[in-house]
Design brief:
Number of helices: 3
Number of domains: 2
Order of helices and strands: HEHEEEEEEEEEEEEH
Radius of gyration: 21 Å
Shape: globular
Strand content: 25-35%
Helix content: 10-25%
Distance between the termini: 22 Å
Amino acid sequence: MKRFQGSLALGLFACAAGYSQNALAVCQFGTSGEPSLQQSFDTLFGAAHSPNAVNDCLTDGSGPGHDGVWQSTGATSATILLELAGFADSNNLGIYDPSNPASQLTVFGGRLGPNSTAQLAFEAVTGGTRITVSILGSTAAPVSTVFTSDAFGFFLTTPEGNTFFSQSNLNADHADHSYAYRGSNQMFASGAAYGTLFGANDAILAYEDLANGDRDFQDFVMLVRGVEPIPLPAAAWLFASGIAVFGARRRLAAQTDRT
């Protein structure tokens, strides 16, 4: 029993330490006859600054350091970089409340194309966080809604009636339709000069907009600044601390029994 308790505490500590960095994956692609995501990155940023499309992507899912759930780190903005899709004039990109995915806020809708930029403002209010989206240079009024916390995921809706969430388990086909690349010192390892374009709280999101598509992931590509994947929840730290305290008390009790 003591060995189990010690292993559990050690495992939780190792897990917590590991989650302080991004979780990386090897992303899989198909072929479409169009420029690949890597070719698109190299065209947009130059090969020396580009992420490696296969090896630099965050792991799919909702865990800390994964690509499913995010939070703002300050001045947050999103810019469309590329749309190589027949649905380019009809796709809508937005954010949703992970605790209630039906609660959504559109960031880019319809015909907004490359270089369109949105600012996202986060304000703590009674009942959660008010998020307001404004499109730079647009005469349209800002739009806003309240999420239950400052956490959010990204979604893409298509004219075929599909909604693809950054939390893949929410997708009807349970497939991953968005790859994320974060500009931090763990990322973009193939491009030593990435720091001239990307900060530690910048991320590139790349989407596949078909349910059974070609998996080229360059149908909608955007740069988001001022965000980070959700880190290890405080509750996990408290649980790990509780296990450690419990173990210490057991050891103290054992010593007392021997004396």
